[in-house]
Write a structure and sequence with these properties.
globular, 48% helix, Thioredoxin domain-containing protein, alpha+beta, Thioredoxin-like_sf, Ssp411-like_TRX, four-stranded mixed β-sheet, 6-hairpin_glycosidase_sf
């Protein structure tokens, strides 16, 4: 019989709707029930594409005896970390502090008011060496609550007090207003370079995650300074990721991470956020270098996004699972025999050589993950082979799709597709970006009592979720709107971004200008009693504060509002203090610093709508790799109220379309020549 999760919108929670565990959704009702029964709350936090979350669910949450004990001794709460990143952040901080590590599934036991006193991750159904079994853990925690209550409450109080202490970012760089400074960038670059893997690309050892934000920073740094080493590290990493097993060589799109240092075997889940960020990075690499491999990855990944992650409402689903048929990677791995079955002996043997499918296998059970370490000697033959293998793969059981639409990740997709569509002349990608942005504007946005725009975190099947948007949602959606406005000249998107960022400054800002991850009037009361979430460091996506700073820099350039630039500088203070010590966790802040150090440059293109000369100037502007370049385009005879200040008082030149390039509050002479504009943006 379904439990109370049967009515929720989260696909992850719905996966547990038929568990014998009497699950509650996160909320006041669950904690009220724990107080009524005088029992602890057991939080289980995960996400739909998490392999070990599925394992623990099958081993423990589907087991009748385990579920019965859980139901008797706890109020059990299931949390989708992607839907409630605020809940995840607070209790992950507790888990890491108490155990020295973290991950998912995350298992936390709290008092009825939400104070944690036990934390862990995955627990097996039976004792494994020195790891306690889940039933043993449950029994010990329940006994402690019953027989050592005062000790438990004292421990919970101590942990809550520690969580409530606001961490002070430490670093050895400049302080105050000097944080956006060449010295900060140089120290961070030196620290990053020391971790670069010269043989295999990437930074550090296994497992290797795609360093999307760091690569964007390095591309911007090279564009600003000409630093050859920064570009070399970027190209080596991009090439290794695209040629290895983390990239889907048949359909495009990247898996979550590589379990090894050589980018050979991935953890097979495919996340929207990774692919949106990497799509944009590869696009910017192609824009800077003209590398055909980077362009191929852009084209294949964008087409894959539209084919496999697009929802009927024209948003983008969160992820594809790693598993199918109960096995991780079953959809993606091949043996030589399977290749020959599909292609015949001649093409099958040739494909095995090109795609690194060996007799021993590079993965499990003698199967291999497809790689493309070298270009094939016959492009037409490879294209035909690839199509036949992709068609054959479609007959396999596909991985499940987590089809919730997350505001932040869709904002990242809007930005990537808008830029790619404009630069590579793909109106279908541009249309997809516009339709996704429209969904975010219409379904994910509401007007609050004060007339401000408020975001929800997620939707599913055209129904908005209840969880409020967090800082990364506002920042990344604003970034998407601004990129879409730059690509299309549709100024309503700039106005929408401005409304979101106005909400950020009104409800997320602390007295010192730093930014919290939750709004002052939408912070969950249980979390607020412990710690209002605030994390300046990047994870798999840009951290909220630098993401907001990046959007504020762009909006400030468009509007001429110095207060927005000042707000961006304040939001960057904490992450940049960490940059010299932790450059891999501050890539987005460093990328935004590059934009500020370069200007950012601003280009206003004016000309009649549909004028080929104006379109040529617009393309020339978008093709510039200048860090954080801000572009606006419009008809000076018909700007409208929503047009940004950057476009105003910019007349045609001798009746012809013109571009006005500015930098550091100084403007170049307007030009009607796209080549001259490109030269202006290179100096």
């Amino acid at each position: 019989m379904p439990n109370r999760l049967a009515s929720v919108t989260s696909p992850y929670l719905l996966q547990h709707a038929d568990n014998p565990v009497d699950w509650w959704e996160w909320g006041d009702d669950a904690f009220a029930e724990a107080r009524r029964r005088d029992v602890p709350v057991l939080l289980s936090v995960g996400y739909a594409a998490c392999h070990w979350c599925h394992v623990m669910a099958h081993e423990s949450f589907e087991d009748a005896a385990t579920a019965a004990f859980m139901n008797e001794h706890f109020v059990c709460v299931k949390v989708d970390r992607e839907e409630r990143p605020d809940v995840d952040a607070v209790y992950m901080a507790a888990t890491q502090a108490m155990t020295g590590s973290g991950g998912w599934p995350m298992t936390v036991v709290t008092t009825p008011d939400g104070r944690p006193f036990f934390c862990g991750t995955y627990f097996p159904p039976r004792r494994v060496q020195h790891m306690a079994s889940f039933p043993e853990v449950l029994a010990a925690v329940a006994a402690a609550w019953t027989t050592r209550r005062e000790e438990v409450l004292s421990s919970a109080g101590t942990i809550a007090d520690a969580l409530g202490q606001r961490p002070v970012p430490g670093g050895d760089g400049p302080t105050g207003g000097d944080l956006v400074d060449e010295r900060v960038v140089a120290r961070a670059l030196g620290a990053l370079s020391a971790t670069f893997d010269e043989r295999d690309g990437g930074f550090g050892g296994a497992p290797k995650f795609p360093p999307s934000m760091v690569l964007e920073w390095l591309l911007r740094h090279h564009a600003r300074t000409g630093d050859a080493d920064a570009l070399a590290m970027t190209r080596a990493t991009l090439d290794a990721m695209a040629r290895g097993g983390m990239y889907d060589q048949l359909a495009g799109g990247f898996a979550r991470y590589s379990v090894d240092a050589t980018w050979t075997v991935p953890h097979f889940e495919k996340m929207l956020y990774d692919n949106a960020l990497l799509l944009r990075v590869y696009l910017h690499a192609w824009r800077l270098t003209g590398d055909p491999l980077a362009r191929r990855v852009v084209e294949e990944t964008a087409d894959w996004l539209l084919a496999d992650l697009r929802t009927p409402e024209r948003g983008f689903a969160s992820a594809l699972d790693a598993d199918s048929e109960g096995r991780e990677g079953a959809f993606y791995a091949w043996t030589p025999g399977q290749l020959r079955d599909v292609l015949g002996d001649d093409d099958g043997t040739w494909a095995a050589d090109v795609l690194a499918v060996t007799g021993e296998g590079t993965f499990e059970h003698g199967a291999s993950v497809l790689q493309r370490r070298r270009d094939p000697d016959d492009d037409a033959r490879f294209a035909a082979v690839r199509d036949r293998l992709r068609d054959a793969r479609e007959a396999r059981v596909r991985p499940a799709r987590d089809d919730k639409v997350v505001s932040a990740w869709n904002g990242l997709a809007v930005a990537a597709l808008a830029e790619a569509g404009a630069l590579l002349d793909r109106p279908d990608w541009l249309d997809a970006a516009r339709r996704c942005a429209t969904l975010l504007a219409d379904l994910h946005t509401r007007t609050d009592a004060g007339g401000g725009d408020r975001l929800v975190r997620t939707s599913r099947d055209g129904v908005a979720g209840n969880a409020p948007g967090v800082l990364e949602d506002y920042a990344d959606v604003a970034e998407g709107y601004l990129a879409l406005a730059a690509a299309t000249g549709e100024h309503a998107w700039t106005a929408r971004a401005q409304r979101l960022l106005t909400t950020v400054l009104a409800h997320f800002r602390d007295d010192d200008g730093s930014l919290f991850d939750t709004a002052d009037d939408e912070t969950d009361p249980v979390l607020g009693a412990l710690r209002r979430p605030q994390d300046p460091t990047d994870g798999p996506t840009p951290a909220g504060p630098p993401a907001a700073a990046a959007a504020l820099v762009t909006l400030g350039a468009l509007t001429g509002d110095l207060a927005l630039r000042e707000a961006a500088l304040a939001a960057l203070r904490d992450p940049l203090r960490l940059a010299a010590r932790y450059p891999r966790a501050t890539g987005w802040a460093l990328a935004t610093a590059e934009a500020l150090l370069d200007g950012p440059r601003e280009v206003a293109v004016v000309g009649p709508s549909g004028d080929p000369a104006a379109a040529a100037l617009h393309r020339a502007a978008l093709a510039s790799p200048a860090p954080g370049l801000v572009v606006a385009v419009g008809d000076p005879a018909d700007l409208g109220d929503e047009a940004p200040t950057l476009l105003r008082d910019r007349p045609l030149v001798d009746g012809r379309a013109a571009a006005y390039a500015c930098r550091g509050f100084v403007c170049e002479r307007p030009t009607t020549d796209p080549d001259a504009l490109a030269r202006q943006l290179r100096t």
